[in-house]
What does this fold into?
Amino acid sequence: MSDAIRLTRLPNGLTVVSEHMPRVETVSFGAYVAAGTRHERAAENGVSHFLEHMAFKGTERRDAAAIAREIENVGGHLNAYTARETTAYYVKVLKEDLGLAADIIGDILTHSTFAPEELERERGVILQEIGQANDTPDDIIFDHFQATAFPDQPMGRPTLGTEEVIKGMKREALTGYMRHHYGPGGMVVAAAGALDHDHVLDLVQTHFAGLPAVAPDAAHGAHYGGGEFREERDLDQVHIVLGFPGTAYRDPLHYPTLLLSTLLGGGMSSRLFQEIREKRGLVYSIYSFAHPFMDGGLFAIYAGTGEKEAAELMPVTLEELRKVQREVTQEELDRAKAQFRASLLMSLESTGSRTEQLARQIQVHGRVVPVEETKAKIAAVTVEQVQQAAVRAFRATPTLAVLGPAGKVPHIAAVAETLAA
It folds into this structure.
């Protein structure tokens, strides 16, 4: 671990990690909770996201306006997000305002009041957010894809929750979930920028002292199923997500799978972009992505195309998935490695990105992974490993989600048969 990075595990189980970044004048500070959508029961789906919203709506010392005002008075930025395995609360400020940043994040995580009037107001906001997602085809298609890939289980449920559950969610559900999941053992506090670790440690011990003494809960297992979702809508485009089981963070094929995604659909030089958009003009947008989880993952391709073009799109895409299992050149692998390496190093120049990386590495690996170690693992990936990752993914049961004028998109049985041939 770099001399600039220091890690302390407090007696109560809270992990504090920081990185001193020379020549910057800012600091990012965040609390990363190992609880997200996959930790929720069906009857509380959306509680992680609802809780994230409510954390900014008032504490015992600050109302919602004061939280926003205090951060913006110093030119800072305060935000949060909910994912399937993590909920994050973070802030970026000038270096002299680190104390305020730690105070506010600690305050919202230990002294939020969940005032009834704020709860009802935010319930309406979330219902609007759900409605907006439902009205945005290239957004909601991913929820349908996730639900089909992981049927009838937390990993497949929407992060926002459903209208029915959100409408009936009571204050006690939020406070109970927070007491149960927001303990120090399931939380990492990370900071990066112009800072001193001992100062960060003092701030955390002061402002996070009220965390509940609970052990972190194990997440519900993720069991990939696959299948098909198809909804006819009167739209100008048909939105398609075709996916397969991917790799977990610690899977030996994790890095080969990431590079496979890059060379297949990760940029303008990728196979899918060149063949389907540039040569054939079948789409405006097409890309692939690899999403790892703690115990699995997803590999998928998204495309948005016209009704007429849909008939040609899928056969061409499937042929590319077949070809990449047997034909990968060293030149395109080297290009994918360069893209990945550049993205990694560029992210290290951002205090916010570095803070998130530190926290995620500890949650996944139990340690901070040196940059040189990651670069070495990328450099070591071979053509044969990328092909192996492609075979393992694309010979598995597919998941197909289609939304829009879907009549010319083949059904999943035909897709599976083509890939197996």
Q: What stands out?
A: The two ends are 48 Å apart (CA to CA).
